[in-house]
Write a structure and sequence with these properties.
The protein has 513 residues and is mainly alpha-helical. The protein is flat and about 175 Å long. Helix 15 links the parallel strand 7 and strand 8. Helix 7 crosses helix 8 and helix 9 runs antiparallel to helix 10. The longest helix has 112 residues, at 30-141. The chain contains 15 helices and 8 strands. The strands form 3 sheets. A 3-stranded antiparallel beta sheet has the order 1-3-2, with helices on one face.
Length: 513
């Protein structure tokens, strides 16, 4: 309809135009009118085709949209139907399971009820049997239940008395062990709370010089200087090929120190001749004597000890230049004094008196003249001479069990003296014995299977054992450390204690190339 309408309008337009043309141009011929009609027909045909194409496109678009909408609605309906079916299936399954569970519960309930009835019947049977057995037992024994109970109580009472006696014995043994443990604890605490430096004295002193030219001046013409120095000090002076060093040899550390200081002053001053040597040695000897007294006073002040006789102060100062088994005597006495004070405090005794006895316990080792008595007894005589208290004198004389102990200070001094002398590193060992002990420690640990390496460190006070992670587990490492410690205790001799550390580790190594 729309296409035909446009065609009619076009024809009317053309006809109107042609009429006007005919009216305006009356002279035009029929040929021109025909041409115009043909052109109008062609234009109308083109317009018709275009409108038909537009109408078809519009129709296709509407059709596609309708199909798409219908497809979406269909898919939604299908999805809803699938969900409904799935939910219906789940409800059916849940209903079936609930039914099965209900049936199972009913079955279990019935079984329990049957079991309860059986147990009740058994209980009645047991009670009947027990009653009959009790009647028969009373008939056979001629005792009633009350009489039998009394007999049983009496028997249990006897057994309880026996068990109590055994328990008391165990408690007594445990008390003894606890007392021993507490005593060890006090000793260990005393060691841990007191630490001192270890000073090791030798029988020689090395005097360093700037150049070997000074050696000739020290020797002097025909050796007169060195002979004068040896005569004045009592020390052997060794001048050899050792570069820039002179050795002073002597067993008296005081005289060695006098020779060292005198030689130092002579070399510094540059004037070395026999008269000057005697003058310097006398001056240094006086300085050393003053230093000995000053050291004794300073030691007494440091330890809080008052009222010592001047001669005892001098003897304490002389300990600085005396050694015992390679251990400096003054350091040993100071350490023993501190240990005694700590231990006396732990035991509720007077720590000041214990410290005084500990400091003076070895004064017999530094006499001005050689005595015939042991150093403990000689020290006791010196303490008595200088008016020390009887308990302190007894502690000095009895610390090596050479006289009977009459006070509680004596065993404390004895124990603390042993602690100070026996701790690791306090006294020098022979080098060969020391090295052999370290090797024996390592070899003992290496003898166990699974041990890869062993290292004795801390001067033999710790043994580190490295084991293979694939050969020994964590539980075995604890057993191994305990076993090694036990063997070291049983088979070896060593000062102090040895710590055994077993190391087990797993390593993973990769290389980035």
């Amino acid at each position: 309809m729309s296409v035909l309408y446009y065609i009619i309008i076009a024809l009317l337009g053309v006809a109107a135009g042609a009429g006007v043309t005919l009216l305006v141009q009356q002279q035009s011929g029929k040929s021109r009118a025909r041409i115009l009609v043909e052109e109008a027909e062609r234009e109308a045909e083109v317009l018709k085709k275009n409108k038909l194409l537009e109408a078809r496109e519009q129709e296709m678009k509407i059709k596609n949209e309708a199909e798409k909408t219908a497809s979406q609605r269909l898919s939604k309906v299908q999805s809803a139907e699938a969900r409904i079916k799935q939910r219906e299936l789940q409800l059916n399954q849940q209903q079936s399971e609930n039914q099965r569970t209900k049936n199972d519960l009913e079955s279990q309930k019935n079984a329990l009820e049957n079991r309860k009835m059986q147990l009740d019947a058994k209980a009645e049977e047991v009670e009947e049997v027990r009653r009959k057995a009790l009647e028969e037992l009373e008939h056979i024994s001629g005792l009633t239940a009350e009489q039998a109970k009394e007999k049983l109580v009496e028997s249990m009472r006897d057994e309880a008395k026996t068990a109590a006696a055994a328990y008391i014995n165990d408690i007594m043994d445990e008390a003894k062990m606890t007392a021993n443990k507490e005593a060890k604890k006090i000793v260990v605490q005393s060691i841990q709370r007191v630490a001192s430096e270890t000073a090791i004295e030798n029988s020689v002193t090395v005097f360093h010089i700037d150049s070997d030219e000074i050696k000739g001046r020290i020797i002097g013409r025909e050796g007169r200087n060195i002979r004068a120095l040896e005569a004045a000090t009592g020390i052997e002076i060794i001048v050899d090929d050792t570069p820039e060093a002179i050795v002073l040899s002597g067993f008296d550390p005081v005289r060695r120190e006098i020779a060292r200081l005198a030689l130092h002053q002579l070399v510094t001053d540059g004037r070395i001749h026999p008269a000057r040597i005697e003058e310097v040695v006398a001056k240094v000897r006086k300085q050393i004597e003053e230093e000995i007294i000053e050291t004794g006073k300073r030691t007494a002040i440091d330890l809080g000890i008052h009222g010592l006789h001047p001669d005892l102060i001098r003897i304490v100062g002389k300990m600085k230049y005396r050694s015992s088994y390679g251990q400096n005597l003054l350091q040993h006495s100071r350490e023993t004094a501190n240990l005694c004070a700590v231990m006396a405090s732990e035991l509720g005794l007077n720590p000041k008196r214990a410290r005084r006895a500990g400091l003076l316990h070895d004064i017999g080792k530094v006499p001005d003249e050689e005595p015939e008595l042991p150093h403990a007894l000689f020290g006791m005589k010196l303490a008595e001479k200088y008016k020390e208290k009887p308990d302190i004198c007894n502690a000095i004389g009895a610390h090596h069990d050479e006289i009977e102990m009459t006070s509680l200070l004596a065993p404390i001094v004895q124990v603390c003296d042993a602690i100070s002398g026996a701790r690791p590193g306090a006294r020098r060992e022979i080098v060969e014995a020391y090295i052999k002990r370290l090797k024996d420690l390592e070899q003992l640990a290496l003898s166990y299977p699974g041990v890869v390496k062993t290292y004795a460190i801390q001067a033999g006070r710790e043994l580190r054992v490295i084991v293979g992670a694939d050969k020994i587990d964590d539980v075995e490492t604890e057993r191994l450390s305990t076993e090694i410690a036990r063997r070291i205790q049983d088979e070896m001799t060593y000062p102090g204690q040895v710590k055994i550390t077993v190391i087990r580790e797993t390593r993973s190594v990769s290389y980035a190339k």
